[in-house]
Amino acid sequence: MILSIRARAINKLTDLTVRSFIRKCQAGEATSRKLSDGGALYLMVNRSGTFSWRVKYRFNSKERTYSAGMYPATSLEAARAHREKVKALLREGRDPVQHRRLERANTIAASGETFSAVAAQWLATKKARWSAIHYRKSSQAFERDVYPRIGNLPVKAITPQIVASVIDAILRRRVRETASKILQHVNGVFRFAQARGLRDDNPAEPVHELLPAKGQAERIPALTSWAGLGDVLRRTEAANLSPAVRMAHRLCAFTAASTVALDQKGSFSARPTGRALT
Question: Over the range 244-264, which residues count as b (16 or more CB within 10 Å of their CB) and which as e?
Fold first, then answer.
């Protein structure tokens, strides 16, 4: 493992040289987009016209960049303190960028602002108004379909695209109503987050456009073999269903099966009923 930071003359800048560099950049007279303080710390003019401090370093033979803050919010002295922190972490054999990500994740988890934490608070507000069965099923739906994908993410960082990935995964199971109900719950969690001041918008709202119209979902093909019927029954037994719903699935399957006749080869021969086994 190779870890290092460029060892050159450091603290070359003054506040005056920094302000002079910024004036030249704004006037279009600067000859470079970077102003080095030495020791791999430099001030960079961004495409947006803002200025940021950065520290370049190598970790495991790969060159990386550590963002040390925006100028003037982060002063020259504060940027130098970041550079020393990067050096200290490298001496300990730790990647500064990864270390900061872990620090932020721990801070978020400690503050209780992950999606799963906010969702738990939202569910708690609903418990008194919902039936015990509805509350249990809603909680299980979060555990099954939502938390594995976005539960540990900061509620502030979740975008419509991230919410869409959750709903897309459910829709691939051809359970449109389940996707719709879970999206309603996720929408409620983000409204709750808005009310608490955790974010200004609701990323779940535009995702409703992904739901197919009722009645336009893909039709399930009719079963034409004993193997197909067996597969439906096995998947029903394995699914997370209540006993009543599971028995209803079995009844539908055997009722539909009664509309077909078994030929001598052991396969189904559909009668002209025009009905599919669903």
Answer: eeeeebeeebeebbebbeeee
Rounded Cα distance, 212 and 209, in Å = 8
215 vs 204: which has the higher pLDDT: 204
Distance separating alpha carbons of residues 76 and 175, to the nearest angstrom: 56
Do both 119 and 57 map to the same domain? no
Band (257; pLDDT cuts 50, 70, 90): low
Instruction: For residue 239, give its domain range.
Output: 226-270
Domain boundary among 37, 65, 94: 94
Three-class secondary structure of residue 5 per DSSP = coil
Q: Tell whether 218 is covered by a domain.
A: no
* Joined tokens for residue 86: 């990067």
Considering the domain architecture, whether residues 22 and 90 belong to the same structural domain is answered as yes
pTM: 0.46
**Nearest-CA neighbor of 43 among 9, 17, 5?**
17
**Could you tell me whether strands 260-262 and 62-71 are parallel, antiparallel, or unpaired per DSSP bridges?**
unpaired
Give the pLDDT of residue 263. 42
The answer to the question of residue 198 being in a domain is: yes
pLDDT tens, residue by residue, 89-140: 999 999 999 999 888 777 766 666 899 999 999 999 999 999 999 999 999 9
Tokens 């001598």 found at: 264
What domain count does the chain have?
3
- Sign of the Cα torsion 248, 252, 254, 255 reads positive
Whether 93 and 43 have beta carbons less than 8 Å apart is answered as: no
Arithmetic mean of pLDDT, 55-84: 95
Single out the residue in 210, 244, 259 at which a domain terminates.
210
The encoded tokens of residue 261 equal 């006749």
Please report whether residue 250 resides in a domain: yes
